[in-house]
Design brief:
two-stranded parallel ribbon; Spore Coat Polysaccharide Biosynthesis Protein SpsA, Chain A; alpha/beta; seven-stranded mixed beta sheet; 2 domains; 9 helices; globular; 32% helix
Length: 325
């Protein structure tokens, strides 16, 4: 059977700049196929110069765009009160059981990720099992209080977790070939929802978690990410982990630099950050290298300036950077 892949992401507000860079990076790395971008609010203004596909994909209010010869971007308005970080398995399942029913590999990327690995590697990777990347906060040992809390909570709801290994994965990327894993992740989140006060809540911007559900020792302080890690322990199939180097959280073979926290690369003043001891990251360079390509999301002069600014900031960072405690 031939491999047919699709990609999806979720965005709102200024994160549309990250979507453009993600799509450009996918094009650069050889992806061919459909990209589904679910969003709230307004669709990006930079799409006005991209040829529309008519009719668009079958989805209420959808707009489809011919990004390149081999890539079509579908912008899909969403009506949900879920925080988008908690909507990932639901979105993937709705697509896979609907407009993307013909694919046999599905990948989700957060819109603050830039792919720098070849697409052929990702196709091979997901053949090894559920493809996931280690988080910056990993590891969590077998009897870490959070893992024990997950076991207790879900066993009380007739879901039994089995420890695999101490790696704690990041929720910003997943590659799957078996949609039954997404159903487990979705179920885990639905069971988790009463504990955190509903899936409209998150540790990210939006409706905040209650004080008792925040902090590194609270079992669901990362909501979808904790649910993803619990789902991995409820899953009986293979899981293929790549370490912290994958998302450029540490040195090694970087695959998809991930811009955790704030500000995002498109918001940064790199010189100001350098003068406070914070040099540019790999993801900052990767973003500005991909901001414009088949999609033109930033003014050309701004891209040129940011590349120079990052170079100067990196030079400052060689001599002056914040110490660690």
């Amino acid at each position: 059977m031939s491999t047919k892949s699709a990609v999806c992401t979720l965005f709102e507000g200024h994160h549309h700049y990250g979507v453009a860079a993600l799509v450009n990076s996918l094009h650069k790395q050889g992806f061919q196929g459909n990209i589904y971008a679910g969003y709230r609010g307004n669709s990006p203004s930079w799409l006005k110069s991209t040829p529309a596909v008519t009719p668009p994909v079958e989805w209420p209010g959808a707009q489809s765009f011919q990004v390149s010869e081999a890539i079509v971007l579908h912008c899909l308005p969403l009506q949900t009160d879920y925080h988008f970080t908690n909507f990932k398995p639901d979105f993937m399942l709705k697509l896979w059981e609907g407009v993307a029913s013909d694919v046999n590999q599905f990948f989700y990327f957060d819109p603050d990720i830039v792919l720098i690995a070849s697409w052929s590697f990702l196709i091979d990777w997901v053949n090894c099992g559920i493809a996931v990347c280690e988080d910056v906060n990993s590891p969590l040992a077998e009897f870490h209080p959070r893992r024990v809390a997950w076991r207790r909570y879900f066993s009380a709801n007739s879901i039994h977790l089995r420890f695999r290994q101490a790696i704690y994965v990041n929720g910003g990327f997943i590659g799957v070939q078996d949609k039954s894993f997404l159903k487990i992740w979705q179920k885990i989140q639905e069971v988790m929802a009463p504990q955190i006060g509903g899936l409209n809540r998150s540790s990210l911007a939006g409706t905040p978690l209650n004080a008792t559900d925040q902090g590194p020792l609270a079992p669901f302080s990362k909501t979808d990410q904790d649910a993803l890690n619990a789902a991995i322990e409820a899953w009986h199939g293979e899981v293929s982990y790549v370490g912290k180097e994958a998302m450029a959280f540490e040195a090694g073979t970087n695959l998809m630099p991930h811009a955790l926290g704030q500000p995002k690369p498109w918001q940064c003043s790199y010189l100001k950050r350098a003068l406070t001891g914070t040099p540019p990251r790999l993801v900052d360079r990767a973003y500005w290298l991909s901001a414009n390509n088949v999609l033109q999301s930033q003014p050309i002069n701004k891209v040129r300036f940011k590349k120079v600014e990052i170079g100067v900031a990196a030079m400052i960072g060689r001599f002056y950077r914040r110490g660690t405690v």
